[in-house]
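Request: Give me one sample?
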Amino acid sequence: MKLILEKINKKFAEKTLFTDASFTFETGKIYGLLGRNGAGKTTLFNCISKNMSLDSGQIALTDETGEAHQDYDNTEIGFIYTQPILPNFMTAVEFVQFFIDINSTRLVTQKTASDYLIAVGIQEIDHNKLLKDFSHGMKNKVQMLISVITETPVLLLDEPLTSFDVIAAHDMKKLILSLKKDTVIIFSTHILQLAQDMCDEIILLHNEKLTAVNPEMIHDKNFESEIIELLSDNYGVADKETAHE
């Protein structure tokens, strides 16, 4: 399956985020989305997940026949926010069970709510605790779990793993890696070491464009300095100006 972004444009007041930006993401790879603060990474995720509309351009998902569709359902997009959005009045097991119930017809794997929670490292003693009393990291685990349960074809991770301890982060890395065979996975991060550890491709959102870096660069010893140079103010400006001529 492919997620196709074609000549997308988005502007807020005087701030332009994307100008005819295009890229095609595929299953079987984990993509790291890098960009400076304010470049529009979260906005891009919101547009893909249909929480926000584009000014122009199109975003499409291909089906099993390879045909692209713009009218995909937003339930096909798993969006893991930096700040978890969960119903604080519910317990962990109540929320997961509720989610299982409303998605019963599309679940491929049948497990109990407790089984799912244990699978992401939430101990049984915490299953009946209110979500409002969960730590930030535990809330992120529950948020991640929702996309895992429904096996969404696209998974967007906005600054993942920043709130996890060392063991939890290791477990979540393994979980993310296990999903890439059948899922388009894109995550934004400022942690370059995480991008090196996890990514098959690095995509830069810079100067209103989406640009892939050479995959061989990912494991280069000078990766950090090379990315900093690519995200400098001047990189890509000449191409952008040429495109507008």
Remarks:
- The beta strands are 2-12, 15-26, 30-34, 56-62, 68-69, 77-80, 154-158, 184-188, 201-206, 209-212.
- Residues 236-245 have pLDDT under 50 and may be disordered.
- The chain has one domain: 2-244.
- The domain at 2-244 is CATH 3.40.50.300 (Rossmann fold).
